[in-house]
From TrEMBL, chain A:
Domain Pyruvate ferredoxin oxidoreductase beta subunit C-terminal: 269-319
GO biological process: cellular respiration; small molecule metabolic process
Keywords: Oxidoreductase
GO terms of molecular function: oxidoreductase activity, acting on the aldehyde or oxo group of donors, iron-sulfur protein as acceptor; thiamine pyrophosphate binding
CDD domains: TPP_OGFOR
Protein name according to UniProt: 2-oxoacid:ferredoxin oxidoreductase subunit beta
Highest taxon listed in the record's lineage: Bacteria
Automatic annotation (TrEMBL), chain B:
Organism, as annotated: Silvibacterium dinghuense
Molecular function GO terms recorded: oxidoreductase activity, acting on the aldehyde or oxo group of donors
Biased composition regions of type Polar residues, renumbered to the chain: 12-21
Stated name of the protein: 2-oxoacid:acceptor oxidoreductase subunit alpha
GO BP annotations listed: response to oxidative stress
Length: 346, 619
């Protein structure tokens, strides 16, 4: 008698199926680039084998900031207020630096109302993966320009943007973020590799992901549409990433790539697509971004990387355990201490 | 500007140096001294030594810094009040003026009541303005040059000369002065010696030159034995230390900065572990929005977190305060009140943030406030705030003010906490296994306080979604009318639970008086004295209730119900406490409330309260 068996679901190195990394059903528009980003986040944490309970996911306000609901439902989540997710993430990581944190923001959330917190997050090098789901438009208020919309780009209503765009990547590099890149929600391979490398990095990861808004900004004249990105994307490097738990032998052509050993022992190889591109040189990175912008190109890839700079939580030199759960005997000084202080004040 | 409130006519000019006021009855241990200097001239050490010397003689004393919003160059005053009766409120009349600032010297002497005393730089020739006060002109520059060869130090040393002069005039025990001075310069022997020489020079000059003609003298007492001197902000910091604070975020703002600065010193000293690592984190944020965001993020993740600010910072924190209330996040916010609105008078005191904090943020929002009325309560309420915020899962505000926070006060020593830290309703992975899961916002115990889990709890059902938008008991997004209403009603019930957990008021009642006084915070000192004035001068008995928290405890309603009229005394223009009471009390009771307000930037004084109450009562 023939027997049939259901194949066991594929699991990661922790023995967890990808289902354990998924979230709720999306309520964003069908075809929204943000959904593709959520899918890559799910894949990245699944493939890197991160325990979902060890992740905190945070966001501000806006379409983008809804997306933490759509991935990692076994992770604690915080949907905060407009533009102020960096502060909440900072506090949360101060309380428990043993957690991995991912923050999802949008171009409005980051580049306008949240610009103050964004720049200070970058300069602190907080160990946080900060993703801007960047569509150049305010979706929840039905289609106004954001501060990352390009000069001269057009709204669905025909309104022309007469202000220059803020380049969040240039800014992040200047301010001290230690992992800065840009990708496109439609580029599954590149985005997944960048996210996996981001998980292996200890410091601020700033990823600007162009994520077309199918409802308000996917038309002729938009510079954040699927069509525009397909025609204008210029990758500066091809990203190869091998997690620390896999065979890290790599097979790229010598002499055209830049190898980086990440904090957790993973191997990141950036294969150069542009001559003389050095991802550890912030001046070159900013220059190339500015030149590309002048030419109407949208550079993607990892622009800048520094794996040596201590993270914010390292600099604070706190105890190894989470501050949140330290027992009373380690946080309340003894009566003798109070008596000493009182004696000095008499 | 002079800081005394005494209205004077146009006194006749006098060319004499000392009026003939001898033969008056001595005034022992009951007068005030006001030192007028230039901001940045280093008078703080000299004034502190004067204060501590009086304290060292066992005489109750208080000191108040009245300083400008300026780094250097503008007039500043320091008032010291010695009171054998233990009154520590600001005294309306100044008895002795030390006029060191040429710019204000004339106004300073004019502010004295008849019979007052003026010590001043001789070249100011202030004797020409008053014939009814005792004048002690002193050649400060000449005396300073004699003891301090280094010209660059003379500005600082000059102030010590007046310490010596005043010591001689009022009979300060020089042993107490030297002890206070050596303590002040404990780690600087050379500076101590130089300054002591200046004190002695002043003392000797006064001994050789003046015949005492004023009535103000000090005599040793034992009323300060075992007591400490501390400012309110340092007391708040101590409370936070012994509450086991782990995350501190802040943005500097007067008059709250020294809460965190004191705390940083304490944490560095007492909370570094043997391996050199810190059991705390302190972050200077980019603004108050970030500071409070960090507090709530840290509270969400389980830390005992706090920030300290003042009115303008409170305004900026409104958005996060609403999130903290609605998403039920713990975090302690110290507000050291100053004078608003807007930038207002940044270095003057008020009690005018009460209403804005009570309902900070949009929508239906209510916050728990603790209202310390002494440095001891700054310490105790600071510690209590951390327990309350975690117990209630809502932001808790400790509302102090500049007068309490930045001035030195004597106090009984603080007591070590007797209860363990209350970390509130937190479920562990083991709890979740036992329970089979949890609903984040469900009222399980009937006290309207739900259970929470912390990020990192190793259980598949530990996670929940924290959000500022509509949510149901399971923390799931919803816009259903019933869900929203249920959540809002539970939060209202939680506020009722808070009413039973916050510090109860202090009631001083004799059981026969028909008139009550109701106040909070630093008004306490003036009211204590005013009640004595009313009794001694008008044979008018009053009862007194001091509110120590919002929501108001039940005793507040009982107090109002048991009196015919209740005077609500506070330091703001708009009767903010009275407004809160009107919202809380039964309508009939609110008709009994009358208002006494003080809002000129100076701490409230007893005489003003007494006069206003007498006027309204028609006594």
């Amino acid at each position: 008698m023939a027997t049939t068996s259901t194949p066991a679901p594929k699991v990661n190195r922790l023995g967890l199926p990808i289902l354990d990394y998924r979230g709720g059903k999306t309520t964003l528009c069908a075809g929204c680039g943000h959904n593709a980003i959520s899918e890559r986040i799910i894949d990245a944490f699944y493939e890197m084998g991160v325990q979902p309970e060890r992740i905190m996911k945070l966001s501000g306000i806006g379409c983008s900031s809804k997306s933490p609901a759509y991935f990692l439902s076994r992770s604690h989540s915080f949907n905060s207020v407009h533009g102020r997710m960096p502060a909440v993430a900072t506090g949360a990581l101060l309380a428990n630096k043993t957690m991995q944190a991912i923050g999802v923001s949008g171009d409005g959330d980051t580049a306008s109302i949240g610009m103050g917190q964004f720049v200070h997050l970058m300069r602190r090098n907080l160990p946080l993966i900060y993703i801007i789901e960047d569509n150049g438009v305010y979706g929840l208020t039905k289609g106004q320009f954001s501060a990352t919309a390009d000069l001269g780009s057009k709204l669905k209503t025909g309104v022309i943007n007469d202000l220059p765009a803020i380049d969040t990547c240039s800014l992040a590099i200047q301010l001290g973020a230690t992992f800065v890149g840009r990708s496109f929600s439609g580029d599954k391979k590149q985005l997944l590799a960048m996210l996996k490398a981001a998980i292996a990095h200890k410091g601020t990861v700033m990823l600007d992901v162009i994520s077309p808004c199918v409802t308000f900004n996917d038309h002729e004249g938009s510079t954040k549409s699927y069509k525009y990105m397909q025609e204008h994307e210029e990758a500066i490097n091809e990203i190869g990433f091998v997690p620390h738990f896999e065979d890290i032998a790599v097979d790229y052509e010598e002499g055209t790539s830049y190898d980086v050993r990440m904090h957790d022992g993973s191997q990141l190889r950036l294969r150069k697509l542009r001559e003389d591109y050095n991802p550890t040189d912030r001046v070159t990175a900013v220059k190339q971004l500015m030149e590309a912008h002048e030419k109407g190109e949208v550079l993607t890839g990892i622009f800048y990387l520094d794996t040596e700079k201590p993270s914010f939580t390292d600099m604070l030199n706190t105890v190894d355990e989470p501050l949140a759960t330290l027992p009373e005997e380690r946080t309340r000084p003894s009566k003798q201490v109070l008596d000493e202080i009182m004696a000095r004040m008499q | 500007m002079a800081t005394g409130d005494v209205a004077l006519g146009n006194p006749e000019p006098s060319t004499g140096t000392n009026s003939d006021l001898s033969g008056r009855k001595p005034v022992i241990n009951d007068f005030s001294i006001q030192v007028a200097t230039v901001n940045g001239s280093g008078s703080q050490s000299a004034n502190s030594i004067l204060l501590r010397s009086i304290f060292g003689m066992g005489i109750p004393v208080s000191g108040k810094n009245l300083f400008p919003s300026n780094i250097a160059g503008l007039p500043t005053w320091y008032t010291i009040r010695a009171s054998k009766n233990g009154y520590v409120a600001r005294k309306k009349d100044i008895d002795i003026v030390v006029a060191m600032n040429a710019e204000t010297a004339k106004d300073d002497i004019l502010s004295l009541p008849t019979g007052g005393v003026a010590v001043y730089e001789a070249s100011f020739a202030l004797e020409q303005y008053r014939s009814d006060v005792t004048c002690y002109p002193v050649p400060f520059d000449k005396l300073t040059a004699a003891v301090c060869p280094e010209a660059r130090l003379r500005k600082l040393v000059k102030n010590m000369i007046y310490v010596g002069v005043v010591a001689k005039i009022i009979g300060l025990d020089m042993k107490a002065v030297e002890k206070a001075l050596r303590k002040q310069f404990a780690k600087k022997q050379k500076a101590a010696d130089l300054n002591w020489a200046a004190v002695e020079a002043g003392y000797n000059y006064a001994s050789e030159t003046f015949t005492k003609q004023d009535p103000f003298v000090l005599e040793p007492m034992h009323a300060t034995d075992g007591k400490i001197i501390i400012d309110g902000n340092a007391a708040c910091a101590l409370g936070a230390l012994f509450a086991g604070v782990t995350v501190v975020t802040w943005y500097p703002i007067t008059p709250s900065s020294s809460v965190v600065e004191s705390l940083i010193d304490l944490l560095k000293k007492y909370r570094i572990e043997p391996d050199g690592k810190a059991s705390f984190a302190v972050v200077q944020a980019e603004d108050e929005l970030a500071a409070v965001g960090m507090v709530l993020g840290a509270g969400w993740a389980g830390a005992r977190s706090m920030t300290a600010t003042s009115g303008p910072g409170i305004s900026l924190m409104a958005e996060f305060a609403g999130l903290g209330y609605w998403a039920e996040l713990p975090g302690v916010i110290f507000d050291i009140q100053r004078v608003g609105p807007s930038t207002g008078l940044p270095t003057r005191t008020a009690q005018a943030d009460l209403l804005s904090i009570a309902y900070l943020s949009h929508g239906d929002t209510k916050h728990v406030m603790l209202l310390p009325g002494s440095v001891k309560e700054c310490y105790e309420f600071s510690a209590a705030a951390f327990d309350l915020t975690e117990r209630l899962q809502t932001p808790v505000f400790v509302v102090s003010d500049l007068d309490l926070g930045m001035n030195n006060w004597m106090s009984e020593p603080f007591e070590y906490p007797t209860k363990p830290l209350d970390r509130g309703k937190v479920l562990t992975a083991e709890d979740l296994t036992r329970l089979g899961g949890f609903a984040r916002y469900k009222d399980v115990d009937g006290d309207a306080i739900p259970y929470r889990t912390l990020p990192g709890t190793d259980h598949p059902q530990a996670a929940y979604f924290t959000r500022g938008s509509g949510h149901n008991e399971k923390a799931l997004y919803t816009e259903k009318p019933d869900d929203y209403q249920n959540m809002m009603e539970r939060l209202d019930r939680k506020f009722e639970t808070a009413r039973t957990l916050v510090p109860a008021p202090v009631v001083v009642a004799n059981g026969t008086s028909k008139i009550g006084i109701l106040a909070f915070g630093t008004s306490d000192f003036a009211i204590t004295e005013s009640r004595d004035q009313l009794k001694n001068e008008y044979q008018f008995d009053t009862d007194y209730l001091r509110i120590r928290a919002f929501p108001f405890s039940k005793e507040v309603q009982d107090f109002v119900a048991s009196h015919e009229r209740v005077y609500v005394v506070e330091q703001n223009r708009d009767a903010q406490l009275l407004s809160l009471l009107k919202l809380d009390l039964p309508a009939g009771e609110t008709l009994k409330l009358r208002s006494i307000r003080h809002y000129n930037g100076l701490p409230i004084d007893a005489r003003s309260v007494t006069d206003e109450l007498v006027l309204q009562e028609g006594i």
